[in-house]
Amino acid sequence: MTVDHGLAVALRRRRYLLSAWPWRALAYALTTLPLAGAAAFGAAVVAAPLLLVVSALRRGRPVDAEALAVLAVVALAVVAFAPLAGAPVAAVERWRLGLVDDRPVTAPRWRGLAARFTTATGWREGAYLAVLGVVLPLAYGMFGLLVLLDVALVAGPWLAGGEDRIVLVWATVDSPAEAVPYALAGLLAVPALVYLAGLLVAAQAAVARRLLDDAPGGAALREVTRSRARLVGAYEAERRRIERDMHDGAQPRLTALTLQLGLARLDVPDDSPAAKPLAVAHEQAKELMVTLRGIVQGIRPQQLTELGLAGAVGELAARSVVPVTVRADLTRPVPDLIETTAWYVVSETLGNVARHAGAGRAQVRLTRDDRRLVVEVRDDGRGGADPARGTGLTGLADRVAAVEGRLLLSSPPGGPTLVRVELPCRP
Asked: Which residue ranges does the record assign to the Putative sensor domain (predicted)?
């Protein structure tokens, strides 16, 4: 089992500066520069003539109508070309997101050139190209000025002392001694700049995921809803029925079986070959009674008590016939009922993956924030899961809704499939 901490989450950690995340953010920022530079150059080629025309109009100078028409055509052509130009940039960006966010990014499945212009995904990729060419150069430029200012402060003692006086921020210094306090302030500002760089990169990554991750679009995450009154009543009726059947049928028979095995142990000598197997069978019968009673009464699975949610889910993954990766970010305690619900959700969903998805791999992600626990199970199978064709997903929705949570599903034909469950965690 691996523990996942995305950059946005890592920024809230006390040991952020001592971790690898600042270096990963730096790598992401450095690899952004050539992409943003190329996009900014393209934006400047289009924007420069338009700015000249606007400037001429503001000064009252005449502008040729043909020139305006040509510029309008060029601008429209650039906008129309954006979905095509954004495709290679989006492919690189989906790969680069792994530097600061370990969650997989779903790429669209294109069906011809026309799909670039007729789907929202193509225009979202064009919008991200605009973000790269316009917004990010401004943001990175402002951050670069702050870095240069800090470097000047730190280097002040070495720059001062010459024939010319130097200006540091708002003060003029004549000697290295006068520049030392500014250098100390610059050194103290370095951690703040590292955090600011992390925030800038995290914001860029969030925008990139929002625009380039195709999982929430197309066959969008749709909530699998059920009638709250119906499901609560049905759940309680079914629980009472199972409890009654167990109390009147299975439990007396198990009790009789346990007693018979206990009496048989008394009649079998300790040195008999049957003594040990008989003792094992007796203990297993008693454990089975406890297990059945616990299931009916709603007691937590034993794995949760012993290992916690992350460990119990890791054990489910280890037993799965499909390779499963578990990524857990559980920084706060989870209520017992929510833990139990999440465990059953993962157990049932992984069972569905093994039985129906035809998947080669699956991933489970657990995230806990101030208000909720989010469980995501993703597989690379054939997709096409539909709650209307079976009771498995609606049964899960019933269980989740019983604790005031919600279940969302994305499963376009051809995959991948994403099941997302949001469970409330009240303080």
From this structure: 68-212
